[in-house]
Each structure stands twice: as C-alpha cells, then as structure tokens.
Amino acid sequence: MTTSATVDVAGLRRLLESDAAPRLIDVRTPGEFDGAHIPGSYNVPLDLLREHRGELRRHLDEEVVLICRSGQRAAQAGQALAAAGLPHLRVLDGGIGAWLAEGAPVRRGRPRWDLERQVRLVAGLLVLTAVLVSTVVPGAKWAAAFVGAGLTFAGLTGTCALGMLLAKLPHNRGPRTTVEAVVAALSRDRG
Predict the structure, then answer these.
(1) Segment 7-12 long-range contacts (CB within 8 Å, at least 24 positions apart)
(2) Model confidence over 102-155: pLDDT tens digits?
(3) For the whole model, what pTM was predicted?
(4) Catalytically active residues, by annotation
(5) pLDDT in tens, 49-76
C-alpha cells in the first residue's frame, strides 16, 4: 500500500461510535496538537513517526486514522507506516480543519496560530522588508527572490523549510512527545 485511503468527518464520527473504533494518530507538532485535537487521539509528530515507524507499527495492529491540519502530513505518515507494513490506514480528509468546521468535539489547550499562517506572515514580512530595503540597497531584492523560490519549492515538494524552522520555536512546542510515551499510551489503552 503506497497511499492511504481517506475518511471524511461524518465517516470518522461513525467509526468512533462503532465497536471497533480506530486508533487516531495526530501527526501535527505538539504545539498544534495542544491547541486543539480530537479526544482520544495520540500525538505522534511526523518526524517522530518516520524515525520510529517500525516500533510504532508493532503497537498499531488495528484500524488507524491519521490526522494533521489539512491531510498532507497525514498522507506522508500513511506512506511511512504502509512501508513499515501497517494495513488499514486512513487519512482524515481535510484534517483537523474539516473536523473543526463540522463542529465535531475537540479538546482545546493553549491557542496558537497554525504553522501555515505563521509561514505566510513571516514570508510576507521578509518579502515586504526586502522590497522596502531594496529602494535604498538595490541588492536586497534578491532576498525577496530567495523567499519566493523557497515558497515555490515548498509548493512543489510539499515540504517547507520555513515551517520546519518555525515549528522548533518555543512558542510552537507543546509538551514533548517521545516514542516511549506514545508506546506506553498505546499499550495501556489497548484492550
């Protein structure tokens, strides 16, 4: 399996009400997860999941639904887990954004801006500053071009260096997530 199937919000709500409810794995950063998440979901940031997919696979033998902000990181997580041999993967179509838009239940923590919004703000400020500075220092326009090239690369590849950098800032970090803590929670909650 190279791609994960999707499930919409209504379908996931039905699955959660069934006798065989899936495990919910939220691959957003701890800060994003802390801001709002689906009750009962486990936070396994994408980088942690990729690094420990084999170990996590041993603790995820039932249906799994992967969640992120919009579905892109969850699809990447699905590919990583599928490569580790995990069957029955689904991605929440539209991610937590769709879940919130439907008014489905969430647990809320400290509110934070989404990383995508932070990227837009920082990239916009960098371009604006470079353009304004270029009226005095003509070479500054290349800083704006560099930001534009980075955003183009991010759009084409689905990876964003600026987003990864912003995710590491203290404001965006929530409680630290370790593979040991995730495995312990998965083992404790099994059954």
Answers:
(1) 7/65, 7/90, 7/91, 7/92, 7/93, 8/92, 8/93, 8/94, 8/98, 9/92, 9/93, 9/94, 9/98, 9/99, 9/101, 9/102, 9/104, 10/102, 12/65, 12/92, 12/99
(2) 999 999 987 778 778 889 999 999 999 999 999 999 999 999 999 999 889 888
(3) 0.74
(4) 68
(5) 999 988 888 888 778 999 998 888 999 9
- 7-14 long-range contacts, Cβ below 8 Å, gap at least 24? 7/65, 7/90, 7/91, 7/92, 7/93, 8/92, 8/93, 8/94, 8/98, 9/92, 9/93, 9/94, 9/98, 9/99, 9/101, 9/102, 9/104, 10/102, 12/65, 12/92, 12/99, 13/104
**Cross-strand pairs, 42:** 25
Return the bridge partners of 108, or none: 36
Confidence of residue 1 (pLDDT cuts 50, 70, 90): very low
